[in-house]
Automatic annotation (TrEMBL), chain A:
It holds the Pfam family BPD_transp_1. Its main location: membrane. This is Putative aldouronate transport system permease protein. It is a multi-pass membrane protein. Residues 94-309 form the ABC transmembrane type-1 domain. Keywords: Cell membrane, Membrane, Transmembrane, Transmembrane helix, Transport.
UniProtKB/TrEMBL annotation, chain B:
Residues 73-274 form the ABC transmembrane type-1 domain. The keyword Hydrolase does not apply. Signal peptide: none annotated. It is found in: Cell membrane. It comes from Paenibacillus catalpae. Belongs to the binding-protein-dependent transport system permease family. Its main location: membrane. This is Putative aldouronate transport system permease protein. The chain crosses the membrane at residues 12-30, 77-96, 108-127, 139-160, 181-203, 256-275. It is a multi-pass membrane protein.
Length: 322, 290
């Protein structure tokens, strides 16, 4: 190799392909230190990100730990056939996942936008700062910590939430153990954790709005509501659409950390989602091939949704994420 | 700007509403702290607990004398420090080359890295890989699989891209190579973004709990979040609740759980002023498109 490069070529005579190769080689040589840095990074991505992707093969095989991923026999889509045509559980976990995520988007997505708009209207700046600091707090704790707190807060016998409901003559509700309230509890506790944190990107967008737009709107006689509707919201639309794409892409992520720490067999019927099912069946019950197939299904839907919404949002004239 | 009376009324209502939200955000922590210091009867009282009454330190004594709590703290501290430092180094090694326009095949490398944000092998294949790499029951399982958080790395790359090329060109004329430039020019200029991403990594490490459940069975390697879960979520920790010795700890279950939560929360509360300052900045940077 080295020798070939040492041969002097007249640049005009070299075939285009070879010249391109030589050009690339020179570029690589010039950037050798950069490439030296990048090399371990690429190795890491190959092992820890692309390695598991190779492991997806077992979704199509009768996986046997003795034979390994490559030598295990193909099973002719048996897992997918089972999941879509026979499994009593798959439709349930799919339905639960979509419903819980859907509720999270329906209520959890607008919540930080509304809170940011309200905070933006506050004229007392020290209070605004304090409110922001306080509202970020729950974001910094893991769902293990927060479940401990949520259990005590929502307890039917000692929890302050049921205590307050008692003022209105409502009997104590077993929020986390009652199939009627479990999903609702997930949505509310999720908002409690993330709403403050979620305001940050929107507040940043709000502070970037050109103030002369408001002045112009006021000149035209726009009241506060009209200013919000015609100036604030349109200015925030790009960031709102980006956040929306990201949340739609995660529609099959109903929130494993939260659900796994809050659910119990009593509410599996409404609270068991794809990720909790994969963990229980895959790791605890060793159904590895089947649950890999479930995971693959989830991933494919996820990436399709991201690309799809990204495409639609771009078509509508907004900026996408990609 | 002068306020009209309508404006004033609006401000008052808004103030009260936001105040209520703040109370809702912060009250649960006050509640738990109060209960952790309360005697069983008071801890079991239905209603609000704004401050501890009928003070009883038994739960805290019970918690702090558990050896495993300290093992967990040790392991969590270790993974947080090591994980954060190594993550920052690995992210810089990825971000710097990807930020240089003259890197050959730059968009190809960027693409194969960004792709992993949208598609992954999933839980089971990852587990099998970790098993095959002999990382089960190995401390490095806390560090290696999450070494490069791709989203953070891209934020770092975006920041590096904003540093003017002239700064490094003069160094190049003086004969510095790319590694030297990264170390002595780029990184010192990037302190705020390093602080932010470092804190992100630190909090993620501190809060991680799932890896200790799925990849580790050795009690000496478990993290504080794992023990916390055993106490407050599954109530599986027989020892702390005195089920083994038959001691009268059972009535203390609630306040022991509360004390454990507070114990795991305190380090984050202490770091909170820093966290806030830098976390917010980073989120702003992150909201810029790559």
């Amino acid at each position: 190799m080295e020798k070939a490069h040492a041969v002097p070529f007249e640049s005009a005579n070299i075939p285009a392909k070879q010249s391109k190769f030589r050009h690339t080689w020179r570029e690589y040589k010039k950037s050798r230190y950069l490439l030296l840095m990048l090399l371990p990074v690429l190795v890491w991505y190959a092992i820890f990100c692309y390695g598991p992707m190779y492991g997806i093969l077992i979704a199509f095989k009768d996986y046997s730990p003795v034979l390994g991923t490559w030598d295990s026999p193909w099973n002719n889509f048996a897992y997918f056939d089972y999941l879509f045509n026979q499994s009593p559980e798959f439709p349930r976990i799919l339905k639960n996942t979509v419903i819980i995520s859907g509720l999270n988007i329906l209520f959890g997505f607008p919540a930080p936008i509304i809170l940011a708009l309200l905070l933006n209207e506050l004229r007392i700046s020290w209070f605004k700062k304090m409110a922001q600091s306080i509202s970020y707090l729950p974001h910094f704790f893991s769902w293990v910590v927060l479940s401990g707190i949520v259990f005590l807060m929502l307890s039917p016998s000692t929890g302050p939430v049921n205590y307050v409901l008692g003022w209105f003559g409502i009997d104590p509700i077993y929020f986390l153990g009652d199939t009627r309230y479990f999903r609702f509890s997930l949505v509310i506790t999720n908002i409690w954790k993330e709403v403050g944190w979620g305001t940050i990107v929107y507040l940043a967008a709000l502070s970037g709005i050109d103030q002369t737009l408001y002045e112009a709107a006021r000149m035209d006689g726009a009241n506060r509501w009209k200013q919000t509707w015609h100036v604030t919201l349109p200015s925030m639309l790009p960031i709102i659409s980006i956040m929306f794409i990201l949340s739609l892409g995660g529609i099959l992520n109903a929130g494993f950390d939260q659900i796994y720490n809050l659910y119990s067999p009593a509410v599996f019927e409404v609270g068991d989602v794809i990720d909790t099912y994969v963990y229980r069946q895959g790791i605890v019950n060793f159904q590895m091939g089947l649950t890999t197939a479930v995971g693959l299904f989830k991933n494919v839907v996820g990436i399709t949704l991201v690309l799809g919404t990204n495409y639609i949002v771009k078509k509508m004239g907004q900026e996408g994420v990609l | 700007m002068k306020m009209t009376s309508g404006e004033k009324g609006f401000q008052v209502i808004l103030f009260l509403f936001i105040l209520l939200l703040c109370v809702i955000a912060i009250y649960p922590f006050i509640h738990i702290a109060s209960i952790s210091f309360s005697a069983p009867k008071e801890a079991g009282r239905f209603g609000f607990h704004w401050f501890p009454r009928d003070i009883d330190l038994f739960s805290w004594k019970q918690l702090l004398t558990q050896k495993k709590i300290w093992i967990g703290m040790r392991n969590t501290t270790l993974r947080t420090v090591l994980g954060t430092v190594l993550s920052l180094i690995a992210m810089a090694l990825a971000a710097y080359p990807l930020s240089r326009k003259h890197l050959p095949h730059r968009s190809f490398y960027t693409m194969i890295i960004v792709f992993t944000m949208f598609f992954s092998g999933g839980l089971i294949p990852t587990y099998l890989l970790i098993r095959d790499l002999h990382l089960l029951n190995n401390f490095w399982v806390y560090i290696l699989p999450g070494l490069i958080p791709t989203f953070s790395m891209l934020i770092m790359r975006n920041f590096f891209m904003t540093i003017p090329v002239e700064v490094e060109e003069s160094a190049k004329i003086d004969g510095a190579n790319d590694m030297r430039i990264l170390w002595s020019i780029i990184l010192p200029l990037s302190k705020p973004v390093l602080a932010t991403l470092g804190l992100w990594a630190a909090v993620a490490n501190w809060n991680a709990w799932f890896d200790a459940i799925i990849y580790v069975t050795d009690t000496d390697l478990k993290t504080i979040q794992f023990f916390l879960r055993e106490v407050v979520v599954t109530s599986a920790d027989a020892e702390i609740f005195g089920r083994v010795t038959g001691a009268a700890n059972l009535q203390y279950e609630t306040s022991i759980k509360a004390a454990t939560v507070i114990f795991a929360v305190v380090p984050i509360l202490i770091a909170y002023p820093f966290l806030q300052k830098y976390f917010v900045k980073g989120t702003m940077v992150g909201s810029l498109k790559g």
